[in-house]
Description:
Aspartate Aminotransferase, domain 1; homodimer; Aspartate Aminotransferase, domain 2; seven-stranded mixed β-sheet; three-stranded antiparallel β-sheet; 396 residues; 2 domains; 13% strand; 13 helices
Amino acid sequence: MIAEKMKPLMANNSAIRTMFEEGDKMRAEHGAENVYDFSLGNPDAPVPSEIKQAIIDILNEEDPVTLHGYMSNAGFEDVRESIAQSLNRRFGTSFGSGNILMTVGAASGLNVALKTILNPGEEVIIFAPYFLEYNWYVDNYDGKVVQAPTDKNTFYPDLESFEKLITDKTRVVLLNTPNNPTGVIYKEDTIKKIAEILERKQKELGRTIFIISDEPYRELAYGGIEVPYVTKYYNNTIVAYSYSKSLSLPGERIGYLVIPSELEDSEFVFDTASNANRIIGCVNAPSLQQKVIGRCVDVQVDLDYYDRNRTSLYEGLKACGFDCVKPEGAFYMFLKSPVEDENDFCAAAKKYNILMVPGTAFACPGYVRLAYCVSHETIVNSMDGFRNLAKEYGLL
Amino acid sequence: MIAEKMKPLMANNSAIRTMFEEGDKMRAEHGAENVYDFSLGNPDAPVPSEIKQAIIDILNEEDPVTLHGYMSNAGFEDVRESIAQSLNRRFGTSFGSGNILMTVGAASGLNVALKTILNPGEEVIIFAPYFLEYNWYVDNYDGKVVQAPTDKNTFYPDLESFEKLITDKTRVVLLNTPNNPTGVIYKEDTIKKIAEILERKQKELGRTIFIISDEPYRELAYGGIEVPYVTKYYNNTIVAYSYSKSLSLPGERIGYLVIPSELEDSEFVFDTASNANRIIGCVNAPSLQQKVIGRCVDVQVDLDYYDRNRTSLYEGLKACGFDCVKPEGAFYMFLKSPVEDENDFCAAAKKYNILMVPGTAFACPGYVRLAYCVSHETIVNSMDGFRNLAKEYGLL
């Protein structure tokens, strides 16, 4: 009954479902407070109070037919200008409304970008480990994902291998920093080197290669670490952004693409992307939420909410003897499994009501992902279980 | 710079842009009140006051992290149940929450449905005239649109020709009633006959053929005319719905799919469609608007707003001697061009500041579409121009 292309996806889906069902079963059996579920990347920091106030103000001040109505497929002009100015203030860029295209979250933004530029058979290079849903998006346009390696001690890109993977089929390099699942942030030096390689390869191959920078975690960077703004280093960069994490609004599906003026044929690419937004069926980003963003463009969730979890979980796990790169951003930690098959490790953790996602789900076996967007109590209370788990593997 | 597939679409887009720019130029030159723009299908009936109140109540009553957060890709369970019950009350169906999948408007719903069931090379039959953006959606999945004829005196399907077009490549019949651009509503008799043909063809060809019923105009039916609920007549029907027109919320991108239990493998198809919602990048329908719908499930715009326009425009045009099927639903009128090339007719109308869309844009040359979702004043004031136009063609 379903399309052939959906069949393998649905088979994979039933594995994920089994994991969720196990979690629900555990919660029913032991009580939700006794289950330490680190499997879900679901933002849970409080929604800033400015959001509610902005919605009420908008409802009181704006004409309803315009507020809830169609606008340009790229979004409300005033909102796009506010976002551009905020980026310029914060990152020293020089965007205008004509560089900002409002999208139904970053996932849809990535689809708009790929629909706009990717041809069947062309390659998208992604550094592993990575969020595997990227595979779906690339497959939507019949492209091919090429995995590039990272250094397992740092999760930084292995640039020598990367350069060798660039061919006359390469169309996009998809970056994600701060990274899901490792929490690693690429510093300026790395971005510069990637840009240098791509500039050289563009000339050598005589073709345009884009960076798509997926940045839903941009604001979740701890200890004042800077997240370089990629468009400043490489002209043919498209940024995909979402307010899901910075404002805890993942259900609202609101984000944007940045298509900088420095990108080749920028205006035409922007127009094409606006049409792609329509063609893939989104038409435009939800209108009320666009207006909310226009008024809350510099608001963000309390970073300390996640940072406290990061510190407690990292220090707790290190004290147990586990091996992990300390995350600098996002709300994930990527732990080395003490045994080769991380599925065994995940299974052992379940005995202590601890749920983690196997690294295989991020194209990186031998590791597990812990999402620390949970209550601080969950982390504190999980530590007995982690200590027992560490003892099992002779780490304590 | 852009994907090959986007190139013809962008060429077509520049023609539409030219039309809009002409309209803007006219408005700047003659004043907006002196331009009679019937080219845009942009709902303009007042948004019901219940919407604002529902948003405020929701903000005051619900937990923000849950309200703006992720939910199942199919949408909030309680909202889906409310919609199911409303449909059951109004149309005598027997849906539950498990049959309703919340989507980013109907355009996205159609994409979710096609992603779920359509394979490359398979055919989608659509009765012409029709909304040409359907072509894009079918092309997104590498399907092929097959145009089926209608009777030009009634715009009802020519069922004999339709039956002959069904082959071993047919996967979907896409219906749109009330219809854009004709305003025609298919009565029970027509739906029954289409269902009979499809039942017979499914057996004969040994394959599943779906109806996708695109129903954003369902509630815009005038004079108490009934719009048959297609799932009651044919099991393998998927309904795509949007609140864009019934609540004047087109910018909010909120709608749903109905996947009835009678559809073959219904639960699996529903699960697959929920995943398709994620895979195409929407993830879920905007969360706050879902909750708004949950509370406003039986609310609708004032039908008289459009009905008054319908009557005035139809009677005015008939009095001028123009030829037109009286629309029973939606907010469009499909006028026969008094000359073969309707582009000449559109160009002549511009002299009187009247803007209409050539029928070629709906796969039906020789006609023009007038969208009467405009102020009543616009219609009244346009009549002098229409009379002059009629005189030019010897109709008055």
